[in-house]
Amino acid sequence: MDAMNYRVIIFNAAKDGKLERLKIFLDGRPNDWLDNCLNGPSDTTPPLVIAARNGYSDCVKYLIAKGANTSVTGVVTFDGETIQGAPPLWAAAAAGHLETVKALIESGANINQTTSTNSTPLRGACYDGHLEIVRYLVEHGANIEIANRHGHTALMIAAYREKVDVVKYLLEVGADAKRASSKGNTALHDAAEAGSVEVTKLLLEHGARMEKDEYGVTPLMSASILGHAAVIYYFLPYASYRERRDAWKLLGATMVDKRMDLSGATTCWRNSFEYNSLVKLQSGGEDEINPLNEVSRIVYGYHEEVNSEEKLELICTDPEAMRMQALIIRERILGDFHPEVHYYARYRGAVYCDLGRLDLAIDLWLHVLQLQQHYLFPMHPNTLSTFVAFLETFAMVIEDTLINPFEHRLPADRLNLETVLVVYERAVLEFERYLHRDEELHKEQILPGETDINQDLENFRDVLLQFIHLINRVILLDSQPSTSINIHLNDELLTANIPVLNPDSERNINPTNFINKPETQTCLSTVFCSHSVVTRLKERLKLPEKTVYPLRPRCPHLLCNVRRLVQILEHLHLFPVHSACQESDQGEGKHFPSHFVVDRLIRAGADLNVKNSDGNTALHILLSTASPRLSIVKLLLEAGAPLLARNNMGITCFDLMIQKFNGQLQNFEFAKFITLKQIAANFIRWHGIPYKDIIPADIEKYLDVF
Asked: Where are the transmembrane segments (predicted)?
């Protein structure tokens, strides 16, 4: 029998350490049979890898004796994480099986062979602190400086995992304590993030220094961000007075947002004030804390960073002011490009949303969205997550309004059309950024296995289509105008609402209230252009620049924005109408197939003849749903969807209509939607009549639909 038929049996025996069972099936087999069974194919996990992973050294020795290659690789799992391309030695070392490691080394296994992510057996052993294995590997020639694909070394992972004995040993045998990863972080950063004073002390004693990573963050700042006060105390002698002051301020911000400890934050900020005079002395008399830019000041309600005991006393009993202080401090020290700034601003927005302050939540999220689109590469997971948060929140507000239609709502708790359109425009822009990305740079930024960009694109397409449907729902609910601007949905003019709040209210950071203030006119002039419709790509791609975020849509025509989306999706072969015709039970997708969305896509020029990989047109997809809506079927047919289009299974849309609407089509005027051209094309394809290079090319393309 073919060796491949025995592979599962051999694998299971090796996995369970059943040596005698292995002998029953492998003894007496020819070498080519054994090689085929034990070493191929590459898309499965070989028996030697799983035996090494589970520490069955007797099985490992036997399999090697039977011809198993010590360099084969497979897939193993550790702590719920799947490791691709793991060689037997890596699997044994990471799992802590010393005898198995010895057996593999003695059989000639490559001591530095890496996984798909370039992790060595030594690094695998360091993860869980298997000191004896680490020592054995080093003594037998393991390279202690080989880093994984992120530039992360064995010393760094040992420091992060707080494996003190392993760190000490690696330093003793010459590991470089100053080495930085591809993102600039050192082992000292890892020790600070872990909060390990012992590891920090060891690293400093062996020459580690307070270097900055790619975000400009030092190990001291890392400890502050994570809230490790004990490590901060140990780092202070190695930092300048300004760095010490900022460390205490950052720790206070962490106390507010991560620990929910306002009292602890007050103590930290008081500690920071002790360095004010020393900072002034050390910097030659200058002690100015640089204020945030105008955009951030507006978003944070013109709150100022406190830098004295007197000012702290004014806010320490006001939880809202303390929380805003944490956001201001974090953005000032880390910079508005830092992920922690984005994360906590989004988090604070979510809290505001739960408290019924939708206006404050949207202001913070729009600020975060602008920063993400300004700094992050297109289709970054964090940016996509922000768009999903907007979509889910908008849908939640609409559902709440439908459930409690007569409940009085303050303007701050209402959802207005302009906000939805602004976010939708930004989402379309994100697709445009991706379409015109620098491909080489994008490949460098997205590491293999970290994200499935094709799946991300499909998911984000669905989010955009759900936004279009959401716009229709907002229109239907929006019936309490206060002031208005004109929004064009297609050929009609829609009056949309802008709730205007009292600009003198105690806490209102909605930028609408600042339009008439002199100090914001300069910023706002960059947003309200003399031309209302932006159509040139270069103009649109300037949107991510950091300005006051658009209070009103840059283009008041929904059709214009949908047309932009359709062009992008069709260029990327993402089939917008197909998606709009699909059923879904998730979130806003539960309203699909959507008549409104399909109608807008058709008006925007979407191609109804295009077929997916299964040969289905959008009409095929619609008719394949559990209960297709005849109104959407008619909409597609009236727009030119081919009724006789045939998929890869040979099924036409006409066939599906008869099947789905049996007995309901007596008065359906099929003749209106079946042209002579369709009949001729269908006849040619059905009977296999040759037509290639005989008829015009454009008609050839049309025939392919049938």
From this structure: none
